[in-house]
Structure formats: C-alpha cells, structure tokens
Amino acid sequence: MSDTICFFGATGGTTNASLTLTLTSQSHRAIALVRNPDKLRQQLISQQKVDESLIDKKLTIVQGNALDVEDVKRALLANIVAGKDDRLPFMLKSGLGGAPALQFDIYHPLHIITLNNPILCESAAKTLVCALSELYAEQPGLAQNKPAVTFVSTTGVSRGAEDVPLAMRFLYHQLLAVPHADKRKMEDTFRDNMLEDAPVFKSVTGIRPTLLSGAGIIAEGKGLETVRAGTECKPETGYTISRADVGSWVFENVIRTQGKGRWIGEMVSLTS
C-alpha cells in the first residue's frame, strides 16, 4: 500500500501541523499542492525537527491551485509520474479555508463575518471529486486503490446533536453563518459522494474543531492528553482548541492508523 498522503491547504495551521508530523514519521511521505511553495517551506522549517533535507527527501511540492482540476490531478499523480509509486496516495487531507472579512448585509444584519471567497471550501471539495472522477475515467486501474479523504470543518454545522455550548450559539449560528454555510456545503459534497454507486473515495472523515487558536506550531500545543473527541451522535462540546493539537490528533488517530480505526467515516468533534 502507498504510504503517501496528499495535502491541500498545507500552509494552514492544522494541516501544516499534520504535514509536519507526517514528514517526521518513519513510514510516511507527502505531497502538497500549494500556491506558494516558498511559504510552505518556511513554515515547515519553523517547526521542530524539520529542515531542508527532510523536506527534499520526503515531500513533493506541487505549485498550483486547489480550485483547478488540472492542478489537483497533477498533485494526485505526482509520485506516479516521478516513478516513486504506482498508485494514488492512500489518503487525502484537506484543511482549506477562506480568510475572514467583515460585511453588512441589509437582509441579514447579524451575518457580519464573511470570507474573501465564501464558497472556497465547497468549490475545492467539488474540484477534488471532479479530479478523481476524471482520473478514474482516464486510467481505470487507479480506481482499484481509492484514497480516503479527511477534511477539516467546524462545530456548529452538525446534522445530529447540538455540538456548540449554549454561550457560543449566537456567535456560531448568527455571526459565523456565512463561513459555516460554506463548511456545510463542503461536508455535503464529500458525504453525498459516498452515497453514490461508485464513490471516488474509500472513506470520508470530517474533523469538526471548536474555535481554533494558535498558529499550528506543534511545540505550542497543549498536548493530545487535553483533547476530547466525539462523534456526530455523541459530540464533545467546548470552547477552543489549538490548531497544533487538531493537526496532531489527526496525524495520530487518522493518518498513523492508515485510515483505519474507530474514527474513520465519522464526523469528529474536537475540543480541549
């Protein structure tokens, strides 16, 4: 089995932390699709135990846009083209998200927080599904080893039990309604694909952290012993969690388990 993980949104805090731990592990390699490779390299070097030689040895950086189908296909095929593998990455990890901005909508006066691209997460999810569909049509053998996908969403978009503390519900359901609508549509794209006769993924796992803090520097996290995890049916509720701890939890409980274990296929709420 391929031990390669393909990362989208690798310059974001949670995904950068997961990527760092992937590179410093003994058994995994990585591909990252990013618009700015130099920015990614500098972020990784700021993490402990990562240097240029490790990056060059274990990471394939593909410059491109996660909203462009051809760029996503290039990333997915990068190790095959380079002769490093004969199949797609066994896992895809997406941590994409838009930059927040303020707005005033006369029809929704409480929806004051928006994004620089309010459909970024949904569009990226659809692009990934389209890219895989095209690859399977072009090279049917690739569908014999479909990748699992893990993506970062948020609490406050659950279809199950309420996963936001009472004191935070106004913030989540009113002020953050616009960015959360994008996260919900992203989730729908991934989850609905698994209901199709021929899904493009082996499995779909969603990560729903509470409000994120910190920059994703692993050394600044509180530690996995502080993290509480729940499911959509039985969520863990809380107020904040560091980006570093989210990225570390994903590595330990999803990536390191080779896409197996109790959390695979779940919508996992995370908080400290």
Automatic annotation (TrEMBL):
It comes from the Eukaryota. InterPro entries: NAD(P)-bd_dom_sf. Belongs to the avfA family. This is NAD(P)-binding domain-containing protein. It comes from Lithohypha guttulata. The lineage of its organism: Eukaryota, Fungi, Dikarya, Ascomycota, Pezizomycotina.
